[in-house]
Design a protein that fits this description.
There is one protein chain. This protein is α+β, with helices and mostly antiparallel strands and 852 residues long. Helices cover 58% and strands 10% of the residues. The chain has a six-stranded mixed beta sheet with strand order 4-3-5-8-7-6. A four-stranded antiparallel beta sheet has the order 12-11-14-15. The chain starts with a helix and ends with a helix. About 2% of the residues have low confidence.
């Protein structure tokens, strides 16, 4: 995979950067690099979607062409006649080469170091990987969400994260990686976050010594709350990169002198990168706070704005007004109709126009009052839990006590310290970062989801680290008020250390990453780190540069030390996947052709280790009687993969019942049916042991049955209309699509055998009908996703996904991808269009004056 990323995305970015600089000479090397990398990223996705397996040939030819193109550019000829231009171009080309070389070195090194890290996919990751397999087989466009989170096409478009699925699919096609190996795809975005951090440090925060900026940016990407996300297939790291780059471009667009102006080209890139971030994962809170503070700032300096800035100020005010009205009517309105008025019709009507990922009304009300679907509030937790929450969110183990202390003090520094108060870009970033941080802190505690804090606030941690490093850099260089502020920071560091020690002793350790278990040595390490930080700062007056470098080395060293407990104690990096790889290798080794049915109570995880084109993996039925009945009608040659491992077998309904576990350690499953005097034999053929648990593979013995029922592959995606009625899920089969037969209807949590008569209507009730099993929901899972498998001919009869894109939605989405691919070239039109508008306006005014 690193060779694919290098060949098709990173290396072609160099010549494309030169082309961009020819188009827009105001772009610096970092800006051109970001735009070029993003173009190659989206171009590779778009090419893969169109040409599929032939995409690598097209991308190779394109890379060769784009590599040769700058040689024929007039840029070289112009440089021969203008020595200043020649020197400038040489410097820019050198910088671009350095960035490409650094990327080319870091990417294979990181891949080599991280590729053998054990991975255990989270629930979201299993869905992402599986949908890549579905798209590969059936070319179905899909979106992320459920029946309640996405209702309208616009919500599906904005919140569906479809572009992330397509990126993963492009990596699958170009590299040949299995779905279970796609986690290495995110390493590219770690490299891009490095350069986004470098851009912010150099161009916005004025860390002018490039070597120090590179060291600081490397420290940021190796943080224990950043690096681990680079080997997941969650979309948080890509979203973080695009948020950082969009904020970089909008702040670069501000020219704050005697007259405030806004560079429209850079503002255009801000809009494009902000839209990229929303497509990968909807997260608008940071943009909302930034827009509020930027509007306030521009409004305070209204007299100093030029015409473009005045116009954009009006646009910002209009956007804020429309956003407030939308949130008040759609978000708060739907919540009030549901919770206070119990008016389901109005709730459903308003939710149809809801496009936000999380309801702001639910988050804010949920902080202070219990909701039917959330019994927690801010007052549900003890003071020990609050200290634990605060330590988890501040993450001194990851950031260091010094940077965590500076982050707490950022609002005070930006408003009270003379140097920072005079830097509007620093102030805008500091206030945006602090407000977003505390918003997520309190709202996620209110819904008892603070474990998601390190995901939702990943870009906030990076901005906090960059701003805090900048504060240290400037305080060390400028000795004015340094003692006073170091005293304040020292007090905050002591408070942070005390909180960390209290949590560690009271609760048996601290947590500082997503789902990790508690680590009991953090207090001791933080105390040593704080002492070394004090020593480094003590020599700041005599040698500022040495002091800063020593400080960064200390922070870097302890950051790497705290990486080990993250990988050791987070469930994301448990070695459970090795056992499933062995099962996968065994099944692949015994594969003899056709489609093979595999029933597993570890379905959620096993499906990403098997080729969906060969093996159809489904979960077991809910009850034991149904399970035994399914064994009777299963074709010979089908497999059972059963496990008693609690981390593999928790999501499927059969695991909640005791029956499935008793078969795991059996050598055979013998069943005889009195009515037909028929006996079947399911024999254990393979076994893997892990941590005292067992994964057993059973094979149904006997000669394979002849395949008698032909499957019409043209109908497999549209033979049913699915309706959700709040009380049941109704499947209306189209006439002529299916003959009279038995099928297995498989969802993500259970499977069920159904007798089908065409045309007919299949009604799935809300709950499982059994005297012994109560309140087991069925209807919603059938409506969201299911596959129908024929028993006469093992194949997928139809596949239903609630969030499947319609034909028009697919056209719209692909059209958007095309526009995103050519977006860098659209910047050429901004200046001519503005000139045309100004000329037309001047001409109209001239005619009006002449008429008067």
């Amino acid at each position: 995979m690193p060779m694919v990323l290098l060949a098709f995305i990173i290396l072609p970015a160099l010549p494309f950067s030169l082309i961009l600089k020819k188009i827009d000479k105001t772009l610096n090397a970092l800006e051109a690099f970001h735009i070029a990398i993003t173009f190659m990223l989206f171009f590779s996705i778009f090419t893969t979607l169109i040409f599929d397996k032939k995409a690598s040939i097209i991308l190779t030819l394109f890379s060769l062409v784009i590599g040769i193109l700058p040689l024929f550019s007039r840029m070289v000829k112009e440089a021969d006649f203008d020595k200043n231009l020649e020197l400038k171009m040489k410097k820019e080309i050198t910088l671009l080469l350095e960035y490409i070389i650094l990327s080319s070195i870091l990417l294979p090194i990181l891949t080599y170091l991280l590729k053998n890290t054990p991975r255990w996919y989270s629930a979201d990751e299993t869905f992402y990987a599986f949908t890549v397999s579905i798209y590969e087989q059936y070319k179905v466009m899909f979106a992320y969400g459920d029946l309640n989170s996405i209702i309208s096409s616009i919500a599906k478009y904005i919140n569906g994260r479809t572009i992330w699925f397509y990126y993963l699919y492009s990596m699958r096609v170009l590299s040949g990686a299995k779905p279970s190996e796609l986690y290495l795809s995110s390493i590219l975005f770690l490299i891009l976050v490095l350069f986004a951090s470098l851009s912010i440090l150099i161009d916005l925060l004025n860390v002018n010594v490039r070597e120090l900026a590179v060291i600081s940016a490397l420290f940021v990407v190796f943080l224990p709350i950043v690096l681990p996300w680079s080997i997941t297939i969650l979309s948080d790291l890509p979203q973080t990169y695009f948020i950082l780059t969009s904020l970089y471009f909008i702040l670069k667009s501000l020219d704050i002198n005697a007259v405030f102006s806004i560079n429209l080209t850079r503002f255009f890139y801000f809009l494009i990168f902000a839209f990229y971030s929303i497509l990968f994962k909807e997260n608008m809170i940071s943009f909302a706070f930034f827009l509020i503070f930027l509007t306030i700032f521009l409004n305070r300096h209204k007299k100093q704005l030029n015409n473009d800035a005045r116009f954009l100020l009006k646009i910002f005010k209009l956007i804020l007004l429309i956003s407030l009205l939308y949130i008040a009517i759609v978000d708060f309105g739907s919540f009030i109709f549901l919770f206070f008025l119990n008016n389901i019709k109005m709730y459903v009507f308003l939710r149809r126009y809801f496009i936000l990922g999380d309801s702001l009304a639910e988050l804010l009300f949920g902080m202070f009052m219990k909701l039917p679907w959330d019994s927690y509030t801010l007052f549900s937790f003890s003071w020990r839990q609050w200290l634990d929450f605060l330590n988890f969110a501040l993450a001194p183990e990851a950031l260091s006590p010094l940077l965590s202390a500076i982050f707490i003090a950022l609002p005070a520094l930006s408003l009270l310290h003379k140097e920072f108060r005079a830097d509007p870009k620093f102030k805008l970033l500091a206030l945006t970062t602090s407000c977003t941080y505390w918003f997520y802190f309190f709202t996620l505690i209110g819904v008892n989801r603070l474990y998601d804090f390190t995901r939702y606030s990943l870009h906030i941690y990076i901005l906090a680290a960059l701003l805090s490093i900048t504060v240290v850099y400037r305080l060390i260089r400028n000795h004015n008020d340094v003692r006073k502020w170091l005293l304040v920071l020292s007090i905050l560091m002591v408070i942070i250390l005390l909180i960390n020690y209290k949590v560690s002793t009271e609760l048996g350790g601290t947590r500082f990453f997503f789902d990790m278990l508690r680590y009991d040595r953090s207090s001791m390490l933080l105390l040593v780190e704080s002492a070394l930080i004090g020593c480094a700062l003590a020599v700041a007056r005599r040698s500022p540069s040495i002091s800063f470098v020593a400080l960064m080395l200390i922070l870097f060293t302890f950051s790497l030390l705290f990486l080990k407990p993250v990988f050791d104690k987070s469930w994301l990096f448990r070695p459970f996947g090795d056992a499933l790889k062995k099962v996968s290798n065994y099944l692949e080794g015994t594969y003899k052709g056709g489609k093979v049915l595999v029933i597993s109570n570890a379905y959620t995880y096993l499906r990403n280790y098997l080729d969906f084109g060969k093996f159809i993996v489904i979960p077991p039925p809910i009850g034991e009687d149904e399970f035994l009945g399914m064994l009777k009608v299963l074709p010979n040659g089908s497999y059972l993969v059963l496990t008693n491992h609690p981390e593999m077998s928790w999501y499927e309904y059969a695991n909640a019942q005791s029956y499935i576990q008793k078969y795991v350690k059996s050598q055979k499953i013998n069943l005889c049916f009195n009515a037909s005097k028929e006996c079947i034999e399911v024999e254990k053929v393979y076994e893997v042991k892990r941590d005292g648990y067992v994964i057993a593979v059973f094979l149904k013995k006997g000669q394979p049955q002849p395949q008698s029922l032909p499957v019409d592959h043209g109908l497999r995606l549209q033979p049913v209309n699915v309706a959700y009625t709040q009380k049941s899920c109704i499947l209306n089969l189209k006439e002529g699509s299916i003959n009279n037969t038995k099928i297995i209807l498989a969802t993500t949590r259970f499977s069920k055998i159904i007798e089908v008569v065409s045309p007919s209507t299949i009604v799935i009730p809300m709950f499982y009908n059994s005297d012994s099993l109560k309140n087991i929901r069925m209807d919603i899972y059938v409506c969201v996703y299911h596959i129908a498998i024929t028993l006469d001919n093992i194949d997928v009869m139809w596949l239903h996904m609630y969030l499947k894109f319609t034909y028009m939605e697919s056209i719209l989405y692909v059209g958007t991808l095309i526009l995103l691919s050519i977006a860098p070239f659209l910047s050429i039109l901004i200046k001519p269009l503005r000139n045309i508008c100004n000329f037309s306006k001047a001409r109209a005014l001239s005619k009006l004056a002449h008429f008067v």
